[in-house]
Amino acid sequence: TDFLYRAKQEGYAVPDTALESAYSALQQLTTTDRWVSVNYITRIERGTIYADNQEFLRRRTAAYAFYVLARAGRADLSDLRYFHDSFITEVPNPLARAHAATALALMGDRTRAANAFRLAEEGLGYSNAENYYQSPLRDAAAMIPLASEVNNQALVERLTGALDQYLGREYYNTQEQAFLLLAAAALLEQSGDVSIALDGVAIETGGKTPQLALSRNMLREGVSITNESDGPLFRSVSVHATPATAPPAEASGFTLNKRIRTLDGRPVDLASVSQNDRFVISVSGQPQDFRLHPAIVVDMLPPGFEIESVVSEADGARNGIYGWLGGVSRAKVAEARDDRFIAAIDLRRYEGTQGFGRFMLAYVVRAVTPGTYVLPGAVIEDMYRPGTYGRTAVQQVSIAAAN
Question: Least packed by Cβ within 10 Å: which of 48, 165, 299, 397?
Answer without folding.
Answer: 165
